[in-house]
Write a structure and sequence with these properties.
The structure holds two protein chains of two kinds. Chain A has ten helices and eight strands. Chain A is of the alpha+beta class. Chain A has two domains: 173 residues, no CATH class; 179 residues, no CATH class. In chain A, the strands form three sheets. In chain A, strands 2-7-1-8 form a four-stranded antiparallel sheet. A two-stranded antiparallel sheet of chain A has the order 3-4. In chain B, the strands form four sheets. Chain B has a six-stranded mixed sheet with strand order 7-8-9-4-10-11. The radius of gyration of chain B is 17 Å and the shape is globular. The chains are: A alpha+beta, B alpha/beta. The interface between A and B is medium-sized, with 28 and 34 residues.
Chain lengths: 396, 234
């Protein structure tokens, strides 16, 4: 009996809507607006978060702690400008001893995986291009490298530097390893890795860390270690030594967790995402309001058939089933089509990277189906409350 | 019983203190000018609407006290409808339309199909089982509607101007089928609302309505009290 009723519902829905291509197309496009808005909003949040999370290689996450060094001041020769020069030309090393001393202190600790300075979102103009930067400093090794000579980097730093750099590069979006040696100079290794953040331009390239103080980029330095407590002690000692060696150098060392780090860095992103989500919600609200109108129209088209069914003895449950199956079917088909449209537009025009299709579609279908049910229920309740005889008289 | 509709501030009495009864096996025609309350009366008899005041007893049960679920059960098990505008579901084929009341009765698929096919065969449409209503002529659609009404062997058959939308030839054929089908169900009551005097003449009893009231003179050889023992008193 139940399967017969279910078949009846499905058959009615199929014949009523899905075989009417023009009507279905219009309805599906309506759903696409809602689905698209939701998907773009959700995907923006997801990507922004993922972009931050990717700043640290996945296999290092959880295994490391952080020590934030703030208020770091550097004395020494002026550093070169960044804005106009080509990549690699502008660098003027930070006093190498400063960095070296600093890193020697760090590298001498067991459990230190590497030294990682991240300056997400800092704009740097290089070679006429405005880039977002992520610095990567590997174990106090300083050759500035570009793609031509990977072996030079390995020779200067050991294979580990390359491996860590590669890992970071892969984690930050798969930028190719770039190696170029400057034999006469000693400069910190820095990586500007192509960001995958939404609308973030810029090719994958390396950039010297030494250029960044000019941009105010070295105000904070994150140090990665498996033992933040010991690192803090070491950093205190380093700060003391550095202060003696370089009177202008100042540093405040504060241990922090990955969550702390992520929270702070997510704040700005969350604000942007919240603004975007607000716009999306507004779009969604309009779409849902129209959803109600749409279902009113659907129900109007169904009303005659439903009245006939009631006249021949259909119980109220059957009417509910037919209408809700119709609504859910339409909502699901519309959402899936809408996700496709949104993915196409996102990929083609908004340069959004591919999204995990299954999760995205499931989320959208669930939300739109829920909204469809919410829009449909009061309408069906009103319909069921009317006497079938009156419905039949209404010249539907 | 009385049936009133609210139209803005105005109350329109479609049926005004009507009292009548229907006996088992009776063929009744309800006639009268447009707007006199014929269809309203039929809808109330068919539990498609409820009277505003009064009592409607079907098999001794006061239907006013019944909930929607019980009324739906009465419609699918006791009543069969034939409407002027056929009221077939366009998305379903002829045989599926006929099966519909049986489906809601919970009848098994094979038996349902067998009875639907038999009903369609009885109205001469066994070669149009898979056709949708849109592919059928008006007369054929009405024959499908008759088959749908008869397939469940209802005790009360209600026809609301069954020939009203048909040409003369089809109307005659549908009228024949309607009365013939009724004759096949022992004890069933047939109530036909019609403007067609020929159709009304074939009924054993004619109820004339005017302005929502039953006119005193009915089309019987002898006027009688509209309360009948052992039947389906309204």
């Amino acid at each position: 009996m139940l399967s017969d009723l279910a078949r009846d519902c499905a058959r009615a829905a199929w014949r009523r809507w899905l075989r009417a291509p023009a009507v279905s197309l219009i309805i599906l496009l309506g759903f696409a607006v809602a689905a698209g808005a939701m998907q773009v909003s959700a995907e923006t949040v997801r990507q922004q978060r993922a972009a931050v999370a990717r700043a640290v290689p996945r296999d290092l996450q959880g295994a490391i702690g952080y020590v934030r060094v703030t208020g770091l001041q550097i004395s020494g020769p002026e550093t070169g400008g960044v804005g106009g020069g080509a990549v690699g030309e502008a660098q003027q090393p930070t006093p190498p001893e400063f960095t070296r001393d600093l890193f020697e202190q760090v590298a001498g600790l067991p459990g230190v995986v590497g030294v990682f300075g991240a300056l997400d979102g800092k704009g740097v103009v290089a070679g006429g291009q405005r880039l977002r930067v992520r610095m990567v400093i590997v174990d106090g090794v300083y050759p500035f490298c570009a793609p031509a000579d990977r072996r030079a980097l390995e020779a200067a730093t050991g294979a580990g530097a390359c491996a860590i750099n590669d890992k970071l590069a892969a984690a930050c979006g798969g930028a190719p390893a770039a190696v170029q040696a400057f034999p006469d100079r000693i400069v910190p290794v820095a990586a500007v890795i192509q960001s995958t953040v939404w609308r973030d331009p810029g090719p994958a390239m390396y950039y010297p860390l030494s250029a960044l103080p000019d941009q105010g980029g070295l105000a904070e330095l994150g140090l990665v270690t498996a033992e933040p407590g010991r690192l803090r002690g070491a950093m205190d000692e380093a700060a003391r030594l550095l202060d003696a060696a370089y009177p202008a150098a100042r540093a405040t060392v504060v241990p922090e967790t990955e969550a702390d780090r992520l929270r702070e860095r997510l704040f700005e992103i969350r604000m942007v995402a919240a603004a975007f989500a607000a716009v999306s919600l507004a779009v969604l609200a309009v779409a849902l309001a129209n959803l109600s109108n749409l279902f009113a129209l659907i129900l109007l088209r169904q009303a005659r058939g439903l009245a006939i069914r009631r006249a021949v003895g259909a119980p109220a449950g059957a009417i509910w089933a037919i209408t809700l199956v119709d609504a859910a079917g339409l909502a699901a088909c519309g959402s899936i089509a809408g996700c496709g449209v949104a993915a196409f537009i996102g990929g083609r025009w908004l340069a959004l990277p591919p999204v995990p299709a299954a999760a995205s579609v499931l989320l959208t279908v669930a939300v739109v189906c829920g909204a469809a049910a919410a829009a449909m229920v009061p309408l069906v309740r009103r319909l069921v409350a009317r006497e079938p005889g009156l419905l039949l008289r209404e010249r539907l | 019983m009385t049936k009133a509709y609210q139209s803005g501030r105005e109350t329109m009495r479609a049926l005004d203190d009507v009292s009548l009864g229907l006996a088992d096996g009776e063929r009744v025609a309800v006639v009268g000018p447009s707007g006199c309350g014929k269809s309203t009366l039929l809808h109330i008899i068919g539990c498609l609407e409820r009277p505003t005041a009064g009592t409607y007893r079907l098999d001794g049960v006061d239907t006013l006290g019944l909930g929607d679920r019980h009324l739906a059960r009465l419609r699918r098990e006791v009543l069969g409808f034939v409407f002027q505008r056929f009221h077939l579901i366009q998305e379903l084929s002829a045989v599926e339309n006929v099966e519909l009341p049986l489906l809601y009765r919970g009848m098994a698929g094979a038996e349902r199909r067998r009875r639907a096919v038999a009903a369609l065969a009885a109205v001469g449409l066994d070669d149009r089982l898979s056709d949708r209503p849109g592919n059928l002529s008006g007369g054929e659609q009405q024959r499908v509607a008759i088959a749908r009404a008869m397939a469940g062997q209802p005790r009360v058959i209600l026809a609301d101007e069954p020939t009203g939308n048909l040409d003369a030839a089809s109307a005659a054929q549908v009228a024949d089928l309607l009365f013939a089908s009724h004759a096949l169900i022992p004890g069933a009551i047939l109530v036909v609302v019609t403007h067609n005097p020929e159709l009304a003449a074939r009924a054993g009893r004619v109820i004339r309505l005017r302005d929502g009231r039953v006119e005193p003179r009915e089309g019987h050889a002898e006027p009688r009290e509209d309360r009948v023992e052992g039947g389906l008193p309204c």
